[in-house]
Design goal:
alpha+beta; 34% helix; homodimer; 60s Ribosomal Protein L30, Chain: A; six-stranded mixed beta sheet; Phosphoribosyl-aminoimidazole Synthetase, Chain A, domain 2; 22% strand
C-alpha cells in the first residue's frame, strides 16, 4: 500500500482493498456475505453500534488500531450478553476525503485482530465520504441448542447477581486521559495509569464468557456499557425486581484508588456510572459460571412505593445513578 | 408523540421509542436481537449500506419516509442478488441534535412499510448525535436449501443475461429533480416525470425476485446499484467473460425518451451509467425466471487483448461507462 495517501486519492476501490488487506475474509466481496452455520438449526443474533469521532473516540487518546478493537468489543459484548457466540462483522465507514488511508487500514487491522480470537471475520461493508468520521459496526452471532437466550427480563427474586471483568476501569482511564490532556502525557512510569488508559482505549474481553454463562444456566445478562447502575437498572426494570449490589464486591480496587488519588476523582463514580467496560453482568439461580464472581442479590421490588429504586448498593440508593446518554 | 420536538429534546429513550413505535418488532429491545430461522439449516446472508444526507439523499427531493423506503430497498436488493430472502434489519442513525423527532419517525415508518411485504422487521439499532445525518442500515437474509448462492463469478459463455425491473429510471428521476430544482417544481400534470422522480426517491422492488432466480437456476446475479455497465462489468470480470448487452433490449423506453426531451439529457446515459434502480441483473443457462427478461448474452473474453472490454453494447464499446463512486 502506498504511504501517505488519502482515501480520496485511493478512491473507493483502493480504500476497500486496504480494508480487505488488513482484515481478509474469503466471505467478503459479493453483493452480500453468505455465512455457513457451524451448528445445525442455530438461531442468529445481531446487533449494531455506531462510533463517531469526537464523541466516542479521539485520536489524541486512542490509536486507530485501538478504536477498531474497541468497536469490535462493544459489539461482541452485546452478542455475548445474549449467551451467543460472535461469528461475523460488517463495517460501514463514513470518512472525510482527506483521511489518511493508513488510518482506515489501522482501524481495519484492529477490527481483524479483535475478531480473530473469537473465530469471527469482517465479511462485508460500505465506505462513503462525509464531514464526520463514523464507524458503524454490525456483529452477528450464533445461538446453538435449545436453551433460551440470556434476555434482560429473566432475573428472579433470590438469584445471585454476577459479573465477569473489570468495573469502572474504562471510566477511570478516560478521566486519566482528560486529566493529563493526551495519551503521551500520561506518566510512562506509572503502569497502573497506563493499564487503565489501555482498558479505556481498547478493552479486551475474555473469549466465550457469554456462552459459558448460558451453558451454566444464567437467568439474565447484559454488559456494562452505559454504567453499572444504569445497566443493572434495565435488567431490574425489565424483570420487575430490585437488584442489590454488595458494597464490598464492587468497591474500588487498589488500581482505581491509585488513579483517584492521582486525578482527584471519586472512584465510586467510575464504579457506579462508568460505562464502556463491557463487562458481562447478569443474574443466576444456578451455579456460578466459570470466571464470574458474585456481586449482589436480586430482591423483591417494593411495588407499593412508586419511587422505589431498581438498584440499591448495600441496601441504599446509589450515590451516583446517571449513565451514558447517546442524544 | 409530541409534535415539533427535536431528537435532543426527546433524548435517547424518546428517540428510540419513536423509532420502535413507527417500526415495531417483538424481537427488538435486548442487547442483541435473536432471529428464529424459518428453514432448517439455512445459511445466513448479510450486507450493509450507508446513506449520508447531501450525498445519497436530500429532503428537498425526497421525504424522510421515502429515504427510509430507499434505504431498505438498496439493502434488500443486495440480499436478493445472492438469491436469498430478507429477514431482518438493523438501523444505526447519526443525527444532529436539532433534527425534528418527526423526521426520524418518518424514516422509521418508511423502513417499516418497505420491510413488511418481505416479512422482515427492524430488530435493533443505535442512535447517536453528530453533525451529519447518516443512516447505516444492515440487512440480514436467509438462504434455504442446498442450491448455491447467486455469486458474481458464475456467468459462463453462452449464458443469457437477464434483468427484472427498470433500468435508468432512477437516474432519469434525479436529472428531472435537478432540472426543476426541487420536488414541488416538477410539473404535477406530467405523470411520466412524476413516476420517474418517485422511482428515484423510493424504488419499489418486486418481492422475491432473488429467490425466484435462484430456484430457476440462475448462474450469477447482482443489482443495478452503480450503473448497468459498471455492475455487469463486475460480473464479467469476476467470471472471466465478456457480457454483450442487446441494444434493443435496453434502449430507452417512451418514459425515458419523454424525460430526455423535457430535460435535454441523453437517455442512453441514464440506461448505461445510472445506478440506484436496484434492478436485479444476472445470467442464466437455464429457463428464464418469472418476471425476468433477456437483455444480452455472455461471450468469450478476448484474452489476447488486454484492453478488451468486459461489457459491450451490441458488440461495441459502450458510449458511457462510468458508474457511481463512493469516495
Amino acid at each position: 500500500m502506498a504511504r501517505n495517501i488519502t482515501v480520496e486519492q485511493a478512491g473507493e476501490a483502493g480504500t476497500i482493498a486496504a480494508i480487505r488487506s488488513a482484515a481478509p475474509s474469503s466471505l467478503n466481496g459479493d453483493d452480500a456475505a453468505v455465512l455457513d452455520s457451524t451448528t445445525s438449526n442455530a438461531r442468529q443474533v445481531c446487533t449494531t453500534d455506531i462510533l463517531v469521532r469526537g464523541r466516542h473516540f479521539r485520536f489524541r487518546y486512542s490509536s486507530p488500531y485501538e478504536v477498531g478493537v474497541k468497536a469490535v468489543m462493544q459489539n461482541f459484548a452485546d452478542i455475548q450478553a445474549m449467551g451467543a457466540r460472535p461469528t461475523a462483522l460488517l463495517l460501514a465507514i463514513v470518512t472525510p476525503g482527506d483521511m489518511p488511508l493508513e488510518t482506515i487500514s489501522e482501524l481495519a487491522r484492529g477490527i481483524n485482530d479483535a475478531a480473530t480470537p473469537w473465530g469471527a471475520e469482517l465479511v462485508g461493508g460500505d465506505v462513503v465520504r462525509a464531514e464526520d468520521l463514523v464507524l458503524s459496526l454490525t456483529a452477528l452471532g450464533e445461538l446453538g441448542g435449545p436453551a433460551p437466550a440470556l434476555t434482560l427480563d429473566g432475573a428472579g427474586v433470590g438469584h445471585r447477581v454476577i459479573a465477569s471483568g473489570n468495573i469502572g476501569y474504562s471510566a477511570a482511564g478516560l478521566d486519566v486521559l482528560q486529566y493529563f490532556g493526551s495519551r503521551k502525557s500520561v506518566p510512562q512510569d506509572d503502569p497502573i495509569l497506563q493499564e487503565l488508559v489501555s482498558w479505556h482505549c481498547s478493552p479486551k474481553l475474555e473469549v466465550g464468557r457469554g456462552t459459558v454463562a448460558r451453558a451454566a444456566g444464567a437467568s439474565s445478562m447484559t454488559d456494562n456499557s452505559d454504567g453499572l447502575v444504569a445497566d443493572l437498572s434495565v435488567i431490574a426494570q425489565r424483570s420487575g425486581v430490585c437488584i442489590d449490589v454488595d458494597v464490598e464486591a464492587v468497591a474500588p480496587d487498589s488500581n482505581l484508588l491509585h488513579a483517584a488519588e492521582r486525578t482527584g476523582c471519586d472512584p465510586w463514580k467510575w464504579v457506579l456510572t462508568g460505562g464502556e467496560d463491557h463487562t458481562l453482568i447478569g443474574t443466576t439461580d444456578s451455579r456460578l459460571p466459570a470466571s464470574y464472581r458474585p456481586i449482589g442479590m436480586v430482591r423483591r421490588l417494593d411495588e407499593t412505593d412508586p419511587d422505589a429504586p431498581f438498584v440499591t448498593i448495600g441496601g441504599n440508593r446509589p450515590t451516583y445513578t446517571t449513565g451514558w446518554q447517546s442524544l
